[in-house]
Amino acid sequence: MNYRRLWRRRPSQPPRPLWRSLLDIGIFVFAAVVVLLAIRIFNQVTLTPGTADVIDGDSFRLGKDEIRLNGIDAPEYRQVCRDGSDRQWNCGRAATDALRRLVTGREVGCTGLDADRYGRLVSRCTAGRIDLNAEMVRLGWAIAYTRHSDDYVDQEAEARRQRRGIWRGSFDLPEDWREIHRPHFDRAPHD
User: Fold this and answer.
1) Residue 26 resides in a domain
2) Per the domain annotation, does 11 fall within a domain?
3) What domain range includes position 88?
C-alpha cells in the first residue's frame, strides 16, 4: 500500500466569495421559515364536532378537550364592569351566558392552533355557521386580543361604536383584571 498517496495534500482551493456564503445563509433561513410555516399550518388539530360545555366567555370543554378561543379575551367569570350609569354588573357572567346561548343546540367544531400554558387548545371555533370567536367580539362580550391576533379588530370597533356588551360602560381589560387577581388564577386557571 502506498501511504504517500493517502497523506498527499489536496491542492488548495481559492476562498469562497462572501456573496456566495451570504446567499447560502439566505437560502437556509428561507428554507427554515418555510418549514416552520408548514409545521404551523399542518400542525393544526381539527377536533370532532360535538356539544360544548361552557366554562367562561372564551373557553369551554368539547368532549375531553378544553378549548380557549383564539384571538379574543372575554371578561373572567367573576369580573364586574360598570354600566353607563356607573352601576356595577357581572359582565363576566354575562359573557359566559352569551357564549352559552351561541353554542346551545348547535354542534361545535374547532381547529386547534396552539396550546396555552394551562394545556388548553387555542382554537378557532364554529357553532353551526357562526364563527364563535368573531361573534363574541362583535356582540361586545369579548375584546380583540391583539397580543395574539388582529383577526377581530373590525368586530371590536363595531361593538364599541354600537355600545354592545361590555362597551356600554367601563371595564378593566380582562388581562389587567387577571393580573390584579393573579393569586386566584395561579391556583385555578378557570372559574
Assistant:
1) no
2) no
3) 47-185
pTM for this structure? 0.73
Residue 104 covered by a domain? yes
CB atoms within 10 A of CB 36: 10
| Beta pairing class for 108-115 and 45-46 | antiparallel
The number of folded domains in the chain is 1
CB 153 within 8 A of CB 134: no
> How many C-beta neighbours within 10 Å does residue 112 have?
21
Stronger pLDDT, 104 or 28, i.e. the higher one: 104
| Cβ-based neighbours of 52, under 8 Å, separated by 6 or more | 60, 61, 62, 67, 103, 108, 127
For 146, the 3-state DSSP assignment is coil
In this structure, which amino acid lies at residue 147? R
- pLDDT at residue number 191: 42
Cα distances from 163 to residues 17, 84, 130, 139, 167, in angstroms, run 63, 10, 21, 9, 5
* 95 assigned to some structural domain: yes
CB atoms closer than 10 angstroms to residue 156 = 20
> Which residues 6+ apart lie within 8 Å of 176 measured at CB?
none
As a whole number of angstroms, the distance between CA 147 and CA 44 comes to: 20
